[in-house]
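Extended Data, panel c. Modelled sequence:
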Amino acid sequence: MLKVKKIFIILFIIALLILIGLGIWIGITMFGNHETNPTGPSEYSAVYMTSGDVYFGKLHSFPKPYLSDALYLVKSTNQSGQTQIGLAPFSSVFWAPAGKIYFNPDQVLFTAPLQNSSQIINAIKNPSILTQNSATQQQGNSSNQSTPTTGSSNSENSTSTVKK
């Protein structure tokens, strides 16, 4: 009887230590100091498709690959014939998708995390850049040719020009 009591006490102490460790780990990951390294990787990724389309957003892999807060590249030509590349929220395409973009894993060529120093991250984190460039680009859209890379024919998407 004494041996059984000792075993239960030892198991109780081990379980208690595991629970304390788990609580500390959860506390650190959820409430810890999450300072952003300006040159390190961000929470955003680029997804390159076999069709040549490129999407940006927060990449998740379960239950299948998908992006939240998705943006896509838009190519346009200005009056002088120069090609400009911009960003537009995926929700602004003419069929107005809601929520996330789910990908067929067979169509994803590769993914790449974006660094915090990326111009794309700067445009995502500073919506005023998107708004300013969108207004400038929409004023010129009457004479510009705009070609979204997602196959959308809507040339009035809000876009942000990214320097090459």
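The helical segments are 2-31, 119-125, 127-140. This feature is highlighted in the accompanying rendering.
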